[in-house]
Write a structure and sequence with these properties.
alpha/beta, two-stranded antiparallel sheet, 6 helices, 31% helix
Length: 194
């Protein structure tokens, strides 16, 4: 399975622990093909809201001064997308949100009814499953908000399967994430993808 891991900059030093590295190590032990990208919001140009990615250059943002189009291509060509994001007031970190704001070219401007709600149609035949790992918030309401937001993003992104978890600190991080992936049906005891 090909996994695209999108980690925010803070994940590389969260209370002295490198959560990005811990996540990579865990996924490597499961024999997944991993492409890790560290998102830095300072290097991502803000969305212009021009909708040219839908009308003029379908599927591509017209902003080409950063790597967002290349990252989006890697995400779409993956089997799974893993977000590793610090929770900020129940939302994604600045780095992750900067990327997500520019991710709309990957859905169609047209609409359809999905689970009784209006959502954008798919642009592509295949989308990766979305796995969101939020870290750092000891506040239960923020954790619940993050989980709901990740669920809604997965639905809007048209992900065929999603899973979301939150962790407060870095102790036993790999053990907690492994158990989460197992319980979510992402991996089996034999380390095979379902």
């Amino acid at each position: 399975m090909k996994i695209c891991l999108l980690a925010d900059t803070n994940s590389q030093n969260f209370h002295g622990a490198n959560l990005r590295e811990k996540t990579e190590n865990l996924l490597n032990t499961l024999n997944f093909e991993i492409k890790t990208i560290v998102l830095d919001g300072r290097e991502i140009f803000p969305c212009l809201g021009c909708f040219k990615c839908w009308l003029t250059t379908p599927g591509l943002c017209i902003i080409t001064k950063d790597e967002v189009n290349n990252i989006a291509k890697q995400v779409i060509n993956s089997d799974a997308l893993v977000f590793l994001s610090q929770i900020s007031y129940g939302g994604y970190s600045y780095d992750t949100k900067a990327f997500l704001d520019r991710f709309i070219p990957n859905i169609s401007p047209f609409f359809e009814i999905v689970q009784g709600e209006t959502h954008h149609k798919k642009r592509y035949k295949k989308y990766p499953m979305m796995i969101s790992i939020g870290y750092g918030s000891p506040n239960q309401q923020e954790n619940l908000t993050f989980k709901k937001l990740a669920q809604r993003n997965a639905l809007n992104f048209r992900s065929p399967h999603f899973a979301v978890m939150t962790v407060e600190d870095s102790s036993d991080f790999e053990t907690v994430v492994r158990a989460f992936l197992l319980n979510a049906g992402i991996i089996k005891e034999t380390n095979q993808y379902e």
